[in-house]
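for the recovery benchmark. tokens below, seq after
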């Protein structure tokens, strides 16, 4: 994902995976106020509002978290509020204690950038999170996305609350979405399955049906280095590691399943996740 937003009128880039309405919400790992790891997938069966911001040490971000914490107090039995930034966890904990933030779960993305990368909200030039609000329903499907076009601008809180009420009352289930999950016991792909994937994904090539390969080209070494960072994070989280060859402005990625010494369904899952970084 490569989208432009603005910092005091100057363009900056969002990087990470593509997100969209009616997609399953990716898992991520962040750090809580005690500096312990926190996995998003541990939250189940409730509607989740995720509100991200650059830093608590700004009036707008301060107000943003307090506004959503108030909403959580009003609907504590139905929703969970997650506030997330790249502030240090100890700073966040002190802020919550000082401002009586008790209903929101406040997390730091400073250690892994897992949230920013998986939700396409990492500001490349600043290594901070964009200002955004997402609503994820009980089935872990993304139902609402709002991203501030200017870092210093407020979100439309009223619009988020209106949509939250609609999502709370919506009992519709989406049963045909694909759940991305690397399998512990991968299945070897048939030749027809490999051909079908390549026909759908022309940027990948099959290396004698034993691996999938893709090449990315960049303008400079900094862009190359940044992309490698994203790539390493998501492949490590999926526990399906790619072979990566890095040059000044070029990356070659190769996927195979060493466990079976062949291409498997895990390689297709991983390739499609990597495609989301485009």
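predicted aa per position
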């Amino acid at each position: 994902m490569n989208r432009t937003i603005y910092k005091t009128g100057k363009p900056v880039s969002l990087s990470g995976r593509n997100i969209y309405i009616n997609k399953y919400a990716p898992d991520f790992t962040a750090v809580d106020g005690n500096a312990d790891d926190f996995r998003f997938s541990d939250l189940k069966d409730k509607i989740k509002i995720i509100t991200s911001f650059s830093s608590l040490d700004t009036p707008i971000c301060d107000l943003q978290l307090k506004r959503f914490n108030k909403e959580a107090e009003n609907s504590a039995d139905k929703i969970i509020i997650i506030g997330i930034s790249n502030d240090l966890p100890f700073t966040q904990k002190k802020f919550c204690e000082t401002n009586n933030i008790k209903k929101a779960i406040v997390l730091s993305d400073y250690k892994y950038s897992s949230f920013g990368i998986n939700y396409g909200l990492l500001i490349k030039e600043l290594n901070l999170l964009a200002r955004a609000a997402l609503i994820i329903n009980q089935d872990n499907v993304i139902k609402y996305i709002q991203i501030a076009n200017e870092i210093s601008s407020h979100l439309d809180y009223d619009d988020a609350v209106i949509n939250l009420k609609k999502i709370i009352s919506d009992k519709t289930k989406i049963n045909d979405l694909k759940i991305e999950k690397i399998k512990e016991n991968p299945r070897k792909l048939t030749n027809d399955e490999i051909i079908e994937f390549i026909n759908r994904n022309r940027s990948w090539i099959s290396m004698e049906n034993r691996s999938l390969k893709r090449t990315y080209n960049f303008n400079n070494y900094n862009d190359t280095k940044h992309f490698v960072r994203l790539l390493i994070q998501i492949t490590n989280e999926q526990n399906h590691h790619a072979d990566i060859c890095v040059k000044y402005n070029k990356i070659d990625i190769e996927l195979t399943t060493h466990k079976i010494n062949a291409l498997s369904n895990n390689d297709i899952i991983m390739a499609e996740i990597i495609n989301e970084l485009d």
